[in-house]
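Per-residue structure
===
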Amino acid sequence: MKQFVLGIVASLVLTGAAVAEEMKLAVTTSFHNSGLAEILLPEIKADLDLDVQLLVVGTGQAIRLGEAGDVDAILVHSQKAEEKFLAGGNGTHRREIMYNDFVFIGPKSDVAGVQAATSAAEALQLIATAASPFVSRGDDSGTHKKELSLWRAAELDPAGFDSWYRAVGAGMGAALNTASGMEAYIMADRASWLNFGNKGALDLLFAGDPVLFNQYAYLPVNPEKHTHAKNDLAMKLEAWLTSDKAKELINAYKINGETLFVFNAKQ
């Protein structure tokens, strides 16, 4: 029996039936919640024989994982944080892959009048003036960083807000669930909102301000700083993510006829 088992192992080695290569990629919760990963990962496996293990976290945590060398690459959406990551020698380069936009979600009754806003700053000012319940990610994610920058642009500081402002310290899906339960306002990425199944009394109330543009970028971890980083696999994945096939899959991904992401990688 032992010789039989050894014979099978030897046969597998000789015929090249090896296990697929593996790499770790830290991605944002907004990307994962969109459902796009479920479309891309099987195609990556089929084309590259590569198992991409996702670590689903906020952008801040994804960057920290990259800095620690705990992943081989990151896919995030906060350009200032990404540039700081590169300046610290933690990544080899930044490659833009796709974009969507941030939107303001809130109760259909829209007691703050956000639908009448002409800018993202005005929308936030209306919410603050009405002291309407607002849910913040509060988790140092790309979405949270963007939200804070928009409050600053509106000349408002969440640190001084009363209990109507609730920072939940959670991912996009959990934050949307909290907003749904409270019938509160929230800023979300469009992809997560479209794929969110517990909308309740919430609706998309404001979008379209250019400042709500939301770019996703891919950054391989620097193998000179972390010698165990699988840069060859990270580059193989990058080539696939910027390919015509990825472009077709990303642009074709829709929910209820609405596009979630637009491919914009320079090929």
About this structure: Residues 20 and 49 are 5 Å apart (CA to CA).
